[in-house]
Design a protein that fits this description.
Mean pLDDT: 85
Number of strands: 0
Largest sheet: none
Number of helices: 4
Strand content: under 5%
Helix content: 55-70%
Structural class: mainly alpha
Order of helices and strands: HHHH
Distance between the termini: 27 Å
Length: 105
């Protein structure tokens, strides 16, 4: 069953899109992503992500999400200028995105 949980958590994080694309306006999916990151962390702490292949599978999409260069404001709008993605919007979307980035660290 831990294999299935690992697959579920990793697939959820991978489904943020190709290239680690995080859509800031997608609150519900981003909240699901936070829970998937918590699950990944638990499996890692308990030794269920312990081989090189499993760690590589875990780290690649997570590092792309943390990078943030491919983040989108909405499904159809990019951040223009790109530095805008770092500005605090003071809304729920911003808080969720910050929480995701914090969990990734």
């Amino acid at each position: 069953k831990f294999f299935l949980l690992r697959k579920l958590y990793n697939d959820t994080v991978n489904s943020f899109g190709t290239g680690g694309r995080l859509i800031h306006s997608d609150c519900d999916f981003n909240k699901l992503g936070i829970e998937a990151l918590h699950g990944q962390q638990s499996l890692l702490l308990f030794g269920f992500q312990s081989t090189y292949a499993k760690l590589k599978e875990l780290c690649k999409p997570n590092s792309l999400l943390l990078d943030g260069r491919s983040d989108l404001k909405t499904r159809t709008h990019v951040f223009d200028p790109p530095e805008e993605r770092y500005k605090l919007g003071g809304n729920e979307n911003t808080e969720i995105v910050l929480q995701i980035k914090k969990e990734l660290i």
